[in-house]
């Protein structure tokens, strides 16, 4: 029996809800960020390997593509680390909304890296994002933690956009879950030395949050997200996924009592509005790249 359209919509919203837990969990886990990300990478690696084995997804990477996968993993690691610093320095709302500048950053980077034509509408969208960022922290004082969080959040978005473009331009024949296996594993290995500077008992005391981050956010959330591409076009998924920061902010409000200010809400609406406009405009099919 064919699934109904409502069931498919519920599935993608469930995926966004699970992925949106990254904000609250990033604030909840009380560990140094490199330790948190190393734990997330290692745990997610094992869960994703089991998933790929269960589904019969090949994990073989051609030698010519291994350098590209390594570079993408380094960019993904920078994205995860800086995103979690943004969460620790500010709030779930500011951290997640800063990250969601990545679609417009991608629109500006793509002509530079993939030699496509820059479109004038992207200048307008870029202006919307800049105004939105300004409203997130109208003081723009770099001695203020919120301003620093926005700056590093936008850098995290830049790393994520570059990672997606690197994979899009070089690697097109691999399953998204297989790529995530290598990225999670490489990130975990690169950050493994962070455990040498942390009391392992503290890590064990945070096991619930770490497991939730690795399993709910990374493994289950992204697996559900991958499955939605069977039912929607890439453009439609991009539009629907802009609900993710809304879920993340609601989770932060419920479990962490973080209520965003009015200026943050307005700034977020401008940022997410630019994402929706760009998603509507985009009709070109592109290879599936899993996100944060």
Outline the structure in words.
With 292 residues, this protein is an all-alpha fold. It has one domain (5-281). The protein has helices spanning 5-19, 21-28, 33-55, 63-89, 92-99, 102-114, 121-136, 145-170, 176-190, 200-205, 207-227, 234-240, 244-256, 262-281. Helix 5 (92-99) runs antiparallel to helix 13 and helix 12 (234-240) runs antiparallel to helix 14 (262-281). The chain crosses the membrane at residues 12-29, 35-52, 64-86, 92-109, 121-137, 149-167, 179-197, 209-229, 236-256, 262-280. Residues 14-137, 149-277 form the EamA domain. This is DMT family transporter.
What attributes characterize this protein structure?
292 residues; mainly alpha; 14 helices; disordered C terminus; DMT family transporter; membrane; transmembrane
Number of helices: 14
The residue fraction in helices comes out at over 70%
Portion of residues in beta strands equals: under 5%
SSE-based structural type: mainly alpha
Rg from Cα: 18 Å
Principal-axes geometry comes out as globular
Overall pLDDT: 84
What is the number of strand segments?
0
Pick out the low-confidence regions. Answer: 283-290
Distance between the termini: 33 Å
Biggest β-sheet description: none
Tally of domains: 1
Order of helices and strands: HHHHHHHHHHHHHH
Domain EamA: 14-137, 149-277
Protein name: DMT family transporter
Transmembrane segments: 12-29, 35-52, 64-86, 92-109, 121-137, 149-167, 179-197, 209-229, 236-256, 262-280
Keywords: Membrane, Transmembrane, Transmembrane helix
């Amino acid at each position: 029996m064919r699934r109904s359209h409502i069931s498919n919509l519920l599935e993608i919203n469930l995926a966004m809800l699970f992925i949106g837990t990254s904000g609250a969990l990033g604030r909840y886990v009380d560990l140094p960020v490199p330790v948190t990300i190393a734990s997330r990478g290692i745990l997610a690696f094992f869960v994703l390997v089991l998933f790929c084995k269960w589904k019969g997804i090949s994990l073989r990477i051609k030698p010519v593509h291994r350098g590209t996968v390594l570079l993408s993993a380094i960019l993904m690691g920078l994205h995860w680390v800086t995103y979690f610093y943004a969460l620790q320095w500010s709030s779930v709302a500011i951290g997640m909304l800063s990250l969601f500048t990545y679609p417009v950053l991608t629109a500006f980077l793509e002509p530079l890296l993939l030699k496509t034509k820059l479109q004038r509408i992207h200048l307008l969208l870029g202006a919307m994002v800049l105004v939105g960022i300004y409203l997130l922290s109208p003081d723009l004082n770099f001695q203020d933690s919120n301003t620093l969080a926005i700056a590093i959040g936008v850098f995290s978005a830049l790393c994520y956009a570059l990672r997606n473009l690197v994979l899009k331009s070089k690697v097109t024949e691999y399953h998204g879950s297989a790529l995530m296996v290598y990225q999670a594993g490489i990130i975990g290995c690169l950050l493994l030395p962070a455990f040498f500077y942390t009391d392992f008992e503290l890590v064990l005391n945070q096991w619930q949050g770490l497991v939730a981050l690795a399993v709910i956010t990374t493994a289950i959330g992204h697996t559900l997200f991958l499955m939605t591409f069977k039912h929607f076009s890439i453009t439609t998924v991009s539009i629907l996924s802009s609900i993710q920061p809304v879920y993340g902010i609601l989770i932060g409000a419920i479990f962490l009592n973080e209520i965003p200010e009015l200026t943050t809400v307005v700034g977020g609406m401008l940022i997410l509005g630019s994402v929706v406009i760009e998603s509507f405009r985009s009709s070109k099919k592109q290879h599936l790249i899993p996100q944060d």
